[in-house]
Amino acid sequence: MKKIKTLLSIFILLFTGDLLAQSTTNPDSVCFGSTSEMYWINNNPNSTYQWSVDPNIGAVIISGANTNSVLIDWSLVNPGLYIDAITLTETDIASGCDNSVFLDVEVLPLPTATIGTPVVACAGSAIPPLTAIGAQVTWYSDPALTNQVGTGNSYATGQTTPGVYTYYATETLNGCEGPATSITLTIEAAPTADPGLPATICEGDSYTFSSAIVSNNNGLIWTTSGDGQFDNNNILNPIYTPGPNDIINGSVNLTLTANGNSPCSNISASMVLTITPGAIAEAGPDNNICEDENFTFSSASATNSSLVTWSTSGDGQFDNVNLVNPIYTPGPNDILNGNVVLTINVNGNGNCTGDTDNMTLFIISLPNPGPIQHN
What we know:
Elements: E1 8-15, E2 18-23, E3 28-31, E4 37-40, E5 47-53, E6 60-63, E7 69-73, E8 80-92, E9 98-108, E10 115-116, E11 119-122, E12 130-133, E13 137-140, E14 148-151, E15 154-155, E16 163-173, E17 176-177, E18 181-188, E19 192-194, E20 199-202, E21 207-208, E22 213-215, E23 217-224, E24 229-230, E25 239-241, H1 244-249, E26 251-260, E27 267-276, E28 280-282, E29 287-290, E30 295-296, E31 301-303, E32 305-312, E33 317-318, E34 327-329, H2 332-337, E35 339-348, E36 355-364
Parallel strand pairs: 1-4, 3-9, 11-18, 20-27, 29-36
Antiparallel strand pairs: 1-2, 4-7, 5-8, 6-7, 8-9, 10-12, 12-15, 13-14, 13-16, 16-17, 16-18, 19-22, 21-25, 23-26, 24-25, 26-27, 28-31, 30-34, 32-35, 33-34, 35-36
């Protein structure tokens, strides 16, 4: 505990051969708990000195009892006024004459500890000052009260970095500094949220998050702008299954919200999940032609496709296997078998799987009229 010391000078004056000891201030005052108070007079080389304290009050002379300067410990003395607490006797060396002076001492009680409230703030926001209730408040940054950093009932620390900072406030009354109260400033780090980069999946697939990041948070939640579902919207890397409207719209915004530690606010960030529609192959209905005809497709289709490829189960030929509606010329075996299966294969966009569909082309044999006869 830090003490404010009161130093009083005691002077010795000599009149007509008599010694007259006189104090400049009476009574003196010291703070309760003071361990080292100095008292002195101007030194007279022709005199000797003897200091004493009233043995009934508990004060102790530490040093200098036989010099012109004495050090006294008052730490065991209760608050109150003590008459003739200190006695100084000066003796003239040549004549042996002596005289004494007495000093009353009032031990002052220490003020009570200040009242302060811990402060919690969020980094990046305004950091409020610390406050303490009391008179003549002094602020320190260490419990030993050696590094004074401010005065007054309000103290702005200037701290902005997340962490816990402890300061100590005291109150001073009548020159006595009371016990310190520790007051903490806690600066919480603001939360962060990063759902990851935009991603693309194929229709029918789910998306598994793998690179979402949150920090300085007290829980999290995922939300969607669409109608899909998370398997668990309170974990960092959930699985999202798009809903019908997500697929129709072709994309959906997925938002990660990190809950801030009080008093920090929540923070949100979104990513776009693009849904590539699945490829659809339509070969068209089964059809038929005469054996001497070619078949021209007219109702085949390829949706959401990057490439079309036709194939045959027989030996005929397409004029272009990569056209959606090519022309097919049956081969001899096709005609002999009377039918052939024609298959359209479409590749999906991106990494999405493709689709396949078949149609059967029936090949009708030409009639074989008999010879024309004439009679």
